Amino acid sequence: MAPKWTVGRGRSGATTTRWLLVLVCVCVCACGCVCRASSQTQHQHQEEEEEDSANENIVTEKKAEESHRQDSADLLIFIMLLTLTILTIWLFKHRRFRFLHETGLAMIYGLLMGVVLRYGIHVPRDISNATLSCHLNATPATLLINSKGKFYEYTLKGEIGANEVNDVQDNEMLRKVTFDPEVFFNILLPPIIFHAGYSLKRRHFFRNMGSILAYAFLGTVISCFVIGLLMYGCVMLMKKMGQLGGDFFFTDCLFFGAIVSATDPVTVLAIFNELQVDVDLYALLFGESVLNDAVALVLSSSIVAYQPEGDNSHTFEVMALLKSFGMFLGIFSGSFALGVATGVVTALVTKFTKLRDFQLLETALFFLMSWSTFLLAEACGFTGVVAVLFCGITQAHYTFNNLSPESQDRTKQLFELLNFLAENFIFSYMGLTLFTFQSHVFNPMFIVGAFVAVFLGRAANIYPLSFLLNLGRRNKIRSNFQHMMMFAGLRGAMTFALSIRDTATYARQMMFSTTLLVVFFTVWFCGGGTTQMLSCQRIRVGVDSDQDNSVSIGEGSERRTTKHESAWLFRLWYNFDHNYLKPILTHSGPPLTATLPPCCAPLARLLTSPQALENECQIKDDDDDSDLILTDGDINLNYGDVAVSTDATGACSQDDPDRELACGDQELVMRGTRLVLPMDDSEPPFTDPRF
Amino acid sequence: MAPKWTVGRGRSGATTTRWLLVLVCVCVCACGCVCRASSQTQHQHQEEEEEDSANENIVTEKKAEESHRQDSADLLIFIMLLTLTILTIWLFKHRRFRFLHETGLAMIYGLLMGVVLRYGIHVPRDISNATLSCHLNATPATLLINSKGKFYEYTLKGEIGANEVNDVQDNEMLRKVTFDPEVFFNILLPPIIFHAGYSLKRRHFFRNMGSILAYAFLGTVISCFVIGLLMYGCVMLMKKMGQLGGDFFFTDCLFFGAIVSATDPVTVLAIFNELQVDVDLYALLFGESVLNDAVALVLSSSIVAYQPEGDNSHTFEVMALLKSFGMFLGIFSGSFALGVATGVVTALVTKFTKLRDFQLLETALFFLMSWSTFLLAEACGFTGVVAVLFCGITQAHYTFNNLSPESQDRTKQLFELLNFLAENFIFSYMGLTLFTFQSHVFNPMFIVGAFVAVFLGRAANIYPLSFLLNLGRRNKIRSNFQHMMMFAGLRGAMTFALSIRDTATYARQMMFSTTLLVVFFTVWFCGGGTTQMLSCQRIRVGVDSDQDNSVSIGEGSERRTTKHESAWLFRLWYNFDHNYLKPILTHSGPPLTATLPPCCAPLARLLTSPQALENECQIKDDDDDSDLILTDGDINLNYGDVAVSTDATGACSQDDPDRELACGDQELVMRGTRLVLPMDDSEPPFTDPRF
């Protein structure tokens, strides 16, 4: 229907903008009204309540109703903010503004709403809702209150600082808008992280696996300790100058190092995707950012768990350190194992049942199994978010191939939507919380120190590691790539969620306030400057399909030798995966009867699906996504063409280094046609050229 | 890929069943282990806690962690139950067992798990977690507890009966598995109801609108009062015989009548859909069940709100009755208006922006706007579930036409999935709660009375109303249809959610227990007997596309005159909708410049999209889903063919009675080709004939 619009194009552009402006106004007004109305009804109802104090039962019911109404209104504020963000970001995309990503915009709207809530709305202090104090000797999870012969049940929400007691009574409105930090870990982060894992499957990720693991594991640990040490120096200086208003231990500094080491270059990756930047750079950045979230999360909890025995709990002690280190390994490997295990179970179930005939059931099963990973890990005391990440990677690598094409689309789209909503929710909440959080501690010296430390920490991660990796890599990480990776060290959702998780002590409050500023700065400044940085570093963009020698912006990069670029680690993994794991878990790959030793023949026959056996017979059958490799270059190229059409629907390309080895110099052409990046199917790289 | 399977068919069937059995065992074991493990770790941790009682802070943290771990484990039980349900139901569909629907199966698994939790797992009573009592004069929403100089925050959860106080301390495990009833209204029901509204759009719904409204509004009220009166008689009898253990007022009886008047024939509709039963019967049943949920919900809250002044709050008083009636009207119309308003706003936004270029943004906006209806209604004191229903209908009727085809699929599939998950969750919870709910009151006399009353109430709804409607309908509701509607009066999610919402008093507890039995019986017995009932009543099935005169089971039904079957109400509505609403809210319909009087020309030009204007010029353009009616029969038939391909992707058919009037006897053929039922695209009507 596109041609139809050409008639009213000019007018419709103006109309659209006008309508959008009206909508923005309506939304903002509505938000304000909602806040005001809900606070007013609350007050009004309380007056009513005082009249008929005889009927205690109704009062309690009304209170619960009122609280629910208030909750709805609070959530509505965020829904409206997100709606506004969507409309505005559409306008930006429509007009091709690339300097502001939706997450940055969500933060801005959050900030505005925070200002309105903080200064625009005055909620009268209400006596009847004021909290009472009760002296007890213990703090059970459930408390029974006997009031005039009736029993009421209370649940423990948490400890609050002595200085906040007055705030609790004072500012109900702002407190209401503040979510329980665990919401981030239990509801918002899992879909984001799972989606990251689920889109991580690509040949380029596995080809750069060694480097990615080095950046994510070694790099994050280096960054954490560099930042921790620098901050400790800064804190010592502050203490000398009398600028410190509370305790700040070395473990706190390390904790800060861990939380700000989780990078989240979602803005940068979106632009990379749109401009079709070099796939290796994309894979390095994306892979690193996905994995280092997991590392930073486990690292921070290990640091918190560092508890030397005895009274002085902040001295150095080898045993406690070893315990922390063991905990890091235990939690990480446990979560990893759990995540992979659920992924494998899902792959087996989808392989050996014919659920694919019923797409709804298939999608539901996929969703439930992925969610159960999270719950299982949490119930076992591991880290759900980490488990979900590895579950996502496993699902993408194996289960995805067993799903029906409809379910492949459905699951992709479902998690894409959940990711989008959760991410923008977190970022708008981030903006909001700058004004609504009640115990900010902004210390200029700490903030400056943190910015310097974050910069140096990132540098200490990227440059030395790149140097070391380049010693072993055939396909070197060039210096402009290194600068770009340095620049793309944005902080985002994970950093925020980790820093807001615990804001009980002075140190944590200062960290939280500083972290917020770090996130704001990196998202707006680094995110906004990505296109400038790309052209400044002369990084090749527009690595387009079919026509690799098309005119691109970055002229400086030359063709690299792609032959034998795969590292030994990758080769080892690839062979095992291709010969054993893929045939066991999916319908693709060579039949197990061919790869397993003869002694395992019965088992092999049991596990090999009829499809795999048939694939062996009729090798040209390309309706199934098996690895049709190990044949001559002609078939490969044919298959490559088929892969393009699959990619358009968000499906996955094959991982087959053998073919690359065989094709040699054709690889660069091939790579263009096979490039599949996340969100590929949702956002056309360029908007309609007529506007 | 289907042909490939023919080789290993027999073997793969056996393998599948074997694998499934293994999986079921694994799941059940895992569920048990999860429960046991989580209860054990809880105990073990408590022992640890006692050792280092010095460190209060850590203890509190550990408690919160423990509670979170337990929550995860509890939720995991349900996820596993749902997974199991999905696998089993797949096997049933695969083998074409129609006697058990997934909801019935979910209940069975829930029951089994309930038995395991109740009798299989013994959680030792732990002292340290026991609740304390504290005497206060008021019950604020937030409570501060001062324990050893530290402040802890508690939130009010609700009142509990004096006899439950010991239970609270006793059976933590069972209490944990019990969800807050508001979860149903705030999280699980909204997607179910929205999905119902979103799938309600069909020509056949609007054609039978008068009858549907009569059944849903008048019928539900009749049913409510008939059941209420019968139950009051039953309760009086019980009182005389000394079988009543507590108060049971007339308002309680009416409340019971309201909650069991909400029908939910999801099982029956699934079978209808699969067997392609007569579309009018489908429309009547589906339309009634969707709307009467809303009526029953508002009715029950109006009955609860009936509060005569003075001390004796259970006498009859005209003013209180009028107030209740006014409340019914107010809440219903308010929720209706809000739902329609958000739907209209979404339609306008999607019409006047070109969000359709970015499907992710479009889907996210659609989702957020639909959700905001719920929150807005709740925040304003209306009923969110009712608002969501009408929002869904509006979205389907208008917004859906403005969405891009991808987003049409995405939104359909998203809500289909949410509906599936929420529905099965509720039904499995229903099964579970029969054993885990702590205050069941099973009274044989009340139960028998309730079953009789439910039966008679349904009869008093269907038969008299059908008689009256038949006086006005040209297309009569035949007696076998009436029997089928009587039989299809299943009770489901809404009835359960309403009955579990408040179980504080003796009367409510008895109602809850009885309601559970009513739901179990109707879902298993009536749901399971649907195919038998269909053939027994000789109802035509297999109303298939293209070949209307194909062999069908129900031979008894003859062709009805379809000419002029549309009622005046429908005609009035159709004209208004077609001439004004559709052109304003979507790109289809005649341009407003043609339908509005000349004085409104500037406004009409502003609101008419270029697409609509073009449609007028080139009337044969069928890429857009405008109502291409008012032309001769030839074009209609062509267009009919086009509509079939649209329907296959879950899109909507057109509502155009004029064409039916023009086509006359061809209508029956047409109807076959246009028949679109919900879930059409997800579940192929017949499984692969080769199995």
Give a description of the structure.
- The structure is a homodimer of 691-residue chains.
- In chain A, β2 and β3 (150-160) form a beta hairpin.
- Mean pLDDT of chain A is 75; it is low at 1-13, 36-54, 125-131, 545-565 and 618-691.
- The longest helix of chain A has 43 residues, at 9-51.
- Chain A contains 27 helices and 3 strands.
- The two termini of chain A are 15 Å apart.
- The first copy, chain A, has helices at residues 9-51, 56-94, 102-120, 165-170, 172-177, 182-198, 203-207, 209-240, 250-259, 266-275, 279-305, 318-352, 359-379, 384-402, 405-436, 444-472, 479-487, 493-500, 506-528, 530-536, 568-585, 592-595, 601-607, 610-617, 633-648, 657-663, 667-674; strands spanning 132-136, 142-147, 150-160.
- Chain A is mostly helical and 691 residues long.
- Helices cover 67% and strands 3% of the residues of chain A.
- Chain A has a two-stranded antiparallel ribbon.
- Chains A and B meet through α1, α2, β1, β2 and β3 of A and α1, α2, β1, β2 and β3 of B.
Tell me the greatest interface: A-B, 125 and 127 residues
Helix-strand topology string of chain A: HHHEEEHHHHHHHHHHHHHHHHHHHHHHHH
Distance between the termini of chain A: 15 Å
Q: What class do helices, strands and sheet pairing of chain A give? A: mainly alpha
Order of strands, main sheet of chain A, comes to 2-3
